[in-house]
Every structure is written in C-alpha cells, then in structure tokens.
Amino acid sequence: MEEKDRQFVTALARGVQVLRCFTAARPELGTTEIAAMTGLAQSTVWRLCHTLTGMGVLVPGRDPGRLRPGYGLLSLGYAALAKGGIAEAAQPGMQRIADRFGVQLSLATRQDDTMLIVARAEAPTILRLSFTVGATLPIASTALGWAWLAGVDAAERLAVLARLEAGTRAEIEDALEHFARHGFVLNLRRAHPDVNSIGVPIICPDGSRVMALNCGGAVSVVTPELLAGPVAEAVKALAASLAPALAR
Fold first, then answer.
1. Which of 57, 224, 245, 246 could form a disulfide with 52 if both were Cys (CB 3.0 to 4.6 A apart)?
2. Residue 138 CB neighbours (<10 A)
3. Angle at Cα 185 formed by Cα 181 and Cα 189, nearest 5°?
4. For the chain, where are the alpha helices, taking DSSP H only?
C-alpha cells in the first residue's frame, strides 16, 4: 500500500471535487446529485456546499434546492487565463488557422478524465458547436483526449486508460498508432456525428506537461483529405511553436 501523503488536505480536495461537478452542460445541481457524482456522503456534501455558498463560490440556483457556480469563481478563472499564459499565446495562431480553412479549434488541458477547454477560435460557419472556454469533453472519444494520451508518457497513459470504458480501448489504440505514423490523431464523426477533426499534443520541452489542440468542422466541408493535409501541417506547426510556453 502506498504511504499516505501527509501534506494532502483531504477537505480541500473534496471541495474542489464538488466544484468540478458543475459544467456548462450541468450549470445547476442539487446536493443529492453531487453526492452521487462524487461518491461522498450526503452530509459531507451538504457541509462542503454550505461552506462554498458562504464564500460566494456557489450560489442558489434558479430551482429550489439547487446550486450553481457564483461570480466568486471568476477571479480564479481569470487568474488561470491571465496575460502571458499559453491561452493568450495560442489565440492568434488558432484564429489564423480557423480563418484560413473555415474550421474551429480548441486548446485544452486534462482535468480528471476529461479535457478542459481553455481557448477557442472559430471561423463563421453554418455548423456552430456549443464548445466554449470552460467546457469539458471526454478523453475517451475526442481528438483532444486522444492527442493528450499520445503526448504523455506510458505510465500516465496506462493509468488513465485503466479508468476508461473497455469499449473505447480499440479506437484509442488505433488513434495512437495513427499518431505514431503521422504526428496527429484523426477523429472522423466519433465525437460528433457531423464533425471531422484532428488532434495534436503540445508537449513541454522536458515532457513534464502536455496539453492538446484540436481542429475540425462540418463533414461536408472539412474532409479527411483536408484535415490530413494542409490543416494537419498548420496545427502541428502551431503546437510546436507553443511547446516552450508550457515551461513558463
């Protein structure tokens, strides 16, 4: 059995676990739902939510008995995306690619078994996806997730794969093989039935940190040939240029 980390503050970790239950798709939750999602006792969740509400981090929802994130979280979000960070560094290059090819791009970091979007760029298109900064997407079925898995070391990859559904392993392995040959992963209508996309990892020079870029669009316009050709070259070049920013 691994030795317990005496510096680890369990109560703080549980509070963060509660906050991570709220997403763009789940903006309001009740304590019973939070308890089910976290595996924590109902009484523990109630105390955590009471504390977070008192701090203004959670506020009452529109429906009785439900909570939603409060404006107190904005300062944390703005600090994470402050000037000089990779999100700011990535934005101009992402927008140039979006405008050039009529596509949409996301920059994301791993959060548990999801990818958290920290920057977005898109060209005006008929198909508008509801992906925004702060949204999360599953690692198991998305170009962002596959690209992140391709960029991390074997031990971290295996640890995450062990928690994912067994039914996703074959397509993830195919994606990793594709990355080994071509330097990007290809996700054709898997994450969304109307979307083709590619993903590329951004790897810190010392390998200590990995993020991911994806790029895609409507299947009627963004063909596999377009993605695998000039789009892939542009996204790979952008990822390489951003890698040093991860070390800052």
1. 57
2. 15
3. 135
4. 10-19, 31-38, 42-54, 74-80, 86-101, 143-151, 154-161, 169-182, 224-226, 232-242
Q: Which amino acid is at 98?
A: A
H/E run at residue 64: none
Which pTM was predicted?
0.76
User: Is 211 in a helix, a strand, or coil?
Assistant: strand
CB–CB of 88/95 below 8 Å? Answer: no
DSSP state at residue 183: S
Residue written as token pair 């070049």: 237
The two tokens of residue 111 are: 């959060």
pLDDT at 176 over 80: yes
Residue pointed to by tokens 């994450």: 191
Q: Name the one residue in this structure whose structure tokens are 């669009």.
A: 217
Over residues 217-237, the pLDDT tens digits come to 989 889 999 999 999 999 999
